[in-house]
Design brief:
Blueprint (H helix, E strand, L loop, with lengths): L13 E2 L22 H9 E6 L4 E3 L7 E7 L2 E6 L5 E7 L4 E2 L2 H5 L6 E4 L3 E7 H10 L1 H26 L3 H16 L8 H8 L3 H13 L3 E4 L2 E4 L2 H8 L2
Antiparallel strand pairs: 1-2, 2-9, 3-8, 4-7, 4-9, 5-6, 5-8, 10-11
Helix pairs in contact: 3-4, 5-6, 5-8, 6-7
């Protein structure tokens, strides 16, 4: 099934009313935040807008890059799979983020997969159109280079720090990250996905969440998590 084109790498998305870039609330947080007038018109001409249900794929590890995805609403998990098929979530993308553009430059298949965590509105720009935008817009090109450079440094620091932490410390660190991503909402992530983000077994995660609840660090609302004490979380995380 396919969101934007016929390929086994994609799942079906429902076409929706075209979202203009000029009125897109998420654009201020995206790589296209500096676009004005003709640039916005050109961007509108080459993109398609789609509503995608929870749990559907944007692209799959090993698939051939065919374009980029700008998140208008919703959240996307970026993950890899180990030898036994277990997921390791490496990033949660929120509205305003553009995903899939890193693979445009290497020409190699995707090294990660992307899947919706909730109902999402996503705009798609085909590879050739995206590369044309980069060629004709130096601000966009510079922004992408800066994004790639910053991400590389942050990812290296994140991996190093997480590898030196206990599971309890990693959970506290991830909850702080998620608290920032979900902003004014409760963290809404399945226990399995949260365990895959922390890098531990689901059973271990559930036990640690109970400990955090008993210590009044968090409060749960069915599967949603409310952070009660960020200072204590930072202390547990070693920050």
């Amino acid at each position: 099934m396919c969101i934007f084109e016929e390929s086994d790498d994609y799942m079906i998305g429902k076409a929706q009313k075209h979202i203009t870039c000029a009125t897109c609330k998420a654009r201020k947080d995206s790589l296209f935040c500096t676009f004005k007038d003709d640039d916005l018109d050109n961007l509108d001409q080459v993109k398609s807008c789609n509503f995608i249900k929870k749990g559907q794929s944007l692209f799959l590890e090993g698939g051939i890059p065919r374009g980029v995805y700008c998140i208008n609403e919703g959240k996307i998990k970026i993950f890899t799979r180990g030898e036994e098929g277990k997921e390791q979530i490496i990033h949660l993308a929120k509205q305003g983020e553009v995903v899939g553009f890193r693979a445009m430059f290497s020409g190699d298949p995707y090294v990660v997969s992307a899947e919706t965590l909730e109902e999402s509105s996503v705009c798609f720009i085909a590879k050739n159109d995206f590369l044309d935008l980069i060629d004709t817009n130096t601000i966009l090109r510079d922004g992408i280079l800066k994004e790639l450079s910053t991400e590389l440094a942050e990812r290296a620091s994140f991996v190093t720090n997480m590898s030196q932490k206990s599971v309890r410390e990693r959970l506290a660190s991830i909850l702080l990250i998620l608290n920032n991503i979900y902003a004014d909402e409760y963290i809404n992530l399945s226990r399995e996905d949260l365990a895959n983000f922390v890098g531990t077994a689901t059973e271990t995660l559930i036990r640690l969440l109970k400990d955090f609840k008993d210590d009044r660090v968090i409060k749960t609302h069915v599967r949603k998590i409310e952070i009660l004490d960020t200072n204590l979380l930072e202390s547990i995380a070693g920050l």
